[in-house]
Amino acid sequence: MTPPEALIFDVDGTLAETEEWHRRAFNETFQSFGLDWAWDADLYRQLLKVSGGKERIRHYAEVYAPPGSATALAKISALHADKTERYAKSVVKGEVSARPGIKRLVRQAHNNGLRLGVATTTTLCNVEALLKAFFGSDARHLFSVIAAGDIVPRKKPAPDIYLYACERLGLSPSACVAVEDSENGVLSARGAGLAVIATPSFYASEDDFSGATVVLSDLGEPDAPYRFKSGARIGQGYVDVASLHDLPRPVVISEE
Ligand code: XBP
Ligand code: MG
Asked: Looking at residue 52, which CATH number applies to its domain?
């Protein structure tokens, strides 16, 4: 099989279990704005069906209609900016750790000439902070494209962010492999025509991953193998560049 030319990573849940830090930051913001709102883990799992922090606040205010909703709806941008600042501070302090295999695969892929990209719903400065925390000053050289947040009008599960990332890389989606952690992410990548390695995150553990090419507990490490869940066989306990060659990729039917 032809090896892929690029790997495109989702951020939240994929590079790290960031959603717990997002949830805490949302709750701190609500308190500081005088809103008597508290998103516990069960509620947050439901709210994560809506991609994007601003969209999630709006959804909660409109659908759950808790006290203070009208005020919150009028202040979504300010609430979200405050939450973003709080979240980024946690990342900068080094509180968030990379999931197994992420740092190893990113560096190995780059050293082997694969292009690297990011396709995420989260805000750009969150991504920059996380990549800097994980890869230091190398981050800007490792990733050729960072597609984030509001750069496309429709967020995941729409395919737009992956189509945008592939276009910026100058590659066909069939030449790229996505790494994702959630059903919305898999639907987005698959809808754009990429093969998908899914590593379900804590909050997405009950999601439907049937659209993924392979589902693994994580990317694995040589001394800490992944648990295989379903789909194509890839690697011997950990995903590396050589094992990507075996990953089945969607067939492109060209229009004559
Ligand atoms: C996951 C999301 C994000 C984060 C919060 O993004 O839906 O909205 O929960 O980020 P992905 P913002 O898995 O695509 O990385 O508040 O910055 O939107
Ligand atoms: Mg994700």
From this structure: 1.10.150.240
